[in-house]
Structures are given as structure tokens and as C-alpha cells.
Amino acid sequence: MENKETVIRLENVSKTFVFRDKKVASFFTQLGWVFTGKNIRRIEALKNINLEVKKGEFLGIVGENGSGKSTLIHLMTGFYKPEKGGKAEISGNFIRLSLGLGFNQELTARENIYLNGSVMGLTLREINEKFDEMIAFAELEEYVDTKIKFYSRGMKARLSFAVAIHANAEILLMDEFFGGVGDEKFKVKSDKVFKESVLKGRTIVHVSHNLSTIRHYATRVILMHKGELVGMGTPDEVFEMYKNKIRVDKLNLRDYVDDDQSF
Amino acid sequence: MPISLTNLLSKYIPENNQLERIWILAKTDFKLRYYETTLGLIWAFLHPLIRMIIYWVIFSYILNQNIPNYGMYIFSGLIVWMYFQEATRKGLMILRSKRYLYENIKMNLYDGFTSSILSTVIGLAFNIFVFIAISPFFNISYSFHILWMFPLMLNLAVLVFAISLILVILNSFLKDISQVWDVFLLGMFWINPIFYAKALIFETFPSLMYINPIAGIIVNLRDALMYAKAPDMTMMAFDWLYALVLLVIGMLIFNRYFHKAMEKL
User: Fold this and answer.
1) 3-class SS of residue B68
2) What is the pTM of this model?
3) Domain definitions of chain B by residue range
4) What is the DSSP string of B11-56?
5) pLDDT tens digit string along A26-82?
6) A171-229 pLDDT, tens per residue?
7) Interface with chain B: mutation pick from A16, A41, A79, A177, highest number of B CBs within 10 Å
8) Which of A118, A120, A134 has the highest number of chain B CBs within 10 A, making it the mutation to test binding with B?
9) How far is B176 from chain A (nearest CA, A)?
């Protein structure tokens, strides 16, 4: 791993969000807050993160809700900028995949495939070629021209998976993208495709509460806790730390860790 | 072939994901705006038409404007005005409506604006086409000056692009901007030569021609479409200058504050 080139580099990355609470108060009191700066809240979402992701690596990110996982992804992609003194770089084409992609509920599956396929870097020719394959994979042949607002959750999830595996990018950043998509049969199929085509030569950063995906694929896992990077290692090492952290916080660890459904 | 026009175009234009993406986004925007309704694209034309009839009735009786072909006179002004109004209101929301793009992929930050403006320009072009098509019924004869509509439309699109860049940033920091812009539009509407005679408004307030970038475009487009006249070049130069200066300012503001704005949305 040491010799491979670094594709994502975070140096001293911190991120604080500043916003104003919406409290009930009279108009003049609220106007006063604008000038006095009262009622301002600061959330330290990330504190001094240093991290490098190498080419071809599958990095899993785990942590509780609000620990800074998604913010970390946004800094990696450059969507958010780090505070002064920090540096965030990504080299290569990337796509961030999150649940539902950029699907528009008012469009049909066909229109959504063209829209999202293009967004994911596929040319129209490539989409034309892969169109039937995507629909077949998602098992939606009968509903190609149905608006996806009439789809079930499972159907939407299958469609987004089918489009996403064709994404034209070297780096995939998945933010809770896979999580119990489809029935058992579909899981087996998508698992196979995932291993055979998605992982091939790509760098993957994967945020998930579903630890089994990470356990299966991750080459390295980091643990986030209250905006800090508190642990790094193999999946088993980090899951052990995670369990302890959760135990300390008196959460029900069984809900998190023994949830062994693969995507 | 699933999407015919797109496939047709792609045969002649070299493969380019960025251009294709802008085109698909624009088409989607346009489709969602019009095709959902039963009357579809007709709405793009019905809006200015209905307004024209209302103003026509009101102003020919009250103001006694005495402009020949008054209906078409109002209609040509309304096409430009309503385009400007719709496109800037839409432009104000771009960061929100296109968030999924900015968040998920590496792309040129301006692509979201280009596609949004392209989708509204399709509606504008459609209305101008209808205007030209019905012109003979109102004794308007065609001339080569019609071609001036292209630089004028482009000028309008650049202006909208620039204003959208500025508004979208302001709006993310201060949500009141969308309300302020609506009031501003209302005011602008009344100082434009949409239903007044050009002479009336500019003789009373000569400077209006220059502080208001839409006025010149309306007057010039009307000259080209209705009166077979070349545009007033001073005014055209002025309007282009306006659009380009705003564009530079808009790009500076946008580049500087884009990421901060995204955190606020």
C-alpha cells in the first residue's frame, strides 16, 4: 500500500459550522441578534483531521450519527472548504453516491437513467449501449416509462444501484449508499457485480452504519467520534474500538454491530 | 432511439460529456416546467398572451396610447419581460435545485446556470417564433432585420446569467432576497416600455433608457421584429456592456462565496 499514489489527502482539516438558532422572539429582539451576534451557535464538525487515501484502497468510515462522517466526505470532494491552515486535495474523477442519487421523482426511469448517467460521466452513446443492461439488472423492464414517484423504495434503490455501478469515475465516495437493497436474490447478484466490476481498480470511500459491507470489502477503516478521527486499522480492530465507544456512551451495541445484512 | 433530438444532435456534435450534460439538464428542466401539464408548451405562450389581452384592453381605453398594432406591441415587450422575470426567479434558486449536482460530482460550477438558462431560452425562442409566425396576420412584413433577434436574445441570456450568479449568492445568506427581487421586478416592470410608447417613457425620463438594461433590449427587439429596423447601436452596445460588467462582478462574487453559500443552504 505504501508505494501507491495518494488520491485523497487531508491535512489539518477542521470545519466549524456557524449558524443562528431559530428561537421564538419578537421582531426587534431578533433584529438585535443580527447586530449583537447573540444566539449564534458554533458546531465543530471536524477537528484537525489528517488522512491519506491511496489509489485502489477501500476505506470504510464508521461512527455514530453526527460524528462528522458526511462532512468529511464533503471536504474530500471539495464541496466544503477546510478552515485556514487546513488542506484538502483530491486527484482524479470522483462521484459521491448517496441514497436516491439525483433522481427526480417526476421523471420516468428512462429519463432518470439518462439524466443520472450523464451526471455520472457517461456519454449518451454509452448510456444508449448500457441502457437495457441497467434496466435488466434493476429488474424494472415493465416500468421503464413509469414515473419513479410510483416506485417502491426497493425499486428505486435497485435502479440507483444499477446506474451507479456504471459510473465513470476512479473514486467513489459512498455516503450510506448501500443498505439492504432488494431481496435476497438481488443482494447476491449485486454483491457479485460489486466485487467484479465496481471494486476493480477504483478507490472507494464508504460511510455506513451497515458494518457488514465494510467488513466484507474494506482494506482499512477509520472511526470518527465527535468530529475527531479516533481510530484507524483493519475492520476487526476498529469495530472493537467502536463497540467500546458505544458501550461507553451506553448505546445498544447490538443494533449497530450485529446487524449483519449485506447490501 | 429513446430520445430522438438528443440522439440526432449527438451524431453531428463530437462526443462531450459536459455539453451533453448541460443539454440533458436543460431539457429535463424544460420538460418538468411544461410537459407535466395537459396543455404543455402552450402555457409558455398562453401566459404572455393572456397578459397581453388584459393590458391591451386596459391601456387602450385608459391611456389612449394610439400605437398602431398595439396588441403586438405589448406582446413583443411582454415576451422579453416575462422571460427575464421567469429566468431570474429560477436563477435565484439554482444552488438549491441543482444541489445534488454540486454535491456529487466534479463539474464546472457554471454548468448548473448554463443549463437552467438554456431551458428558459427554449421557451423564449418558442414565443419569438410564434410572434414571427403570426406577424403577417397583423400586417407586419418580414425583413432581414429579424436576424437581430439572435444577438439580442444572447444579450438577454448573458444578463440573466450574470444576475443569477449574484442573486443566488445573496439569497443563500439572506433569504429575504427573493422577496426583495420580486418587489424590484414589479418596479422594473412599470418603468419598461412594455405598453407605453417608447417616446412617452423616454421623453419623460431619458435616463431610464440607460439605467435599465431591459428597456434597450425590448426596444431593439421590437424594431427588428415589427418595424423592419436595425437596432439602435448605442443602446445595444450599452446593453452588452451592462451584461458583461455584471457578468464579471457576478463571477467574482460567485467564485468567492460559492462554498460558503452551500454551507448555508
Assistant:
1) coil
2) 0.85
3) 3-264
4) HHSPP-HHHHHHHHHHHHHHHHHHTTSSSTTHHHHHHHHHHHHHHH
5) 777 777 777 776 777 888 899 999 999 999 899 999 988 888 999 999 999 999 999
6) 989 888 765 566 777 778 877 887 777 778 889 999 987 788 888 888 999 999 989 99
7) A79
8) A118
9) 14
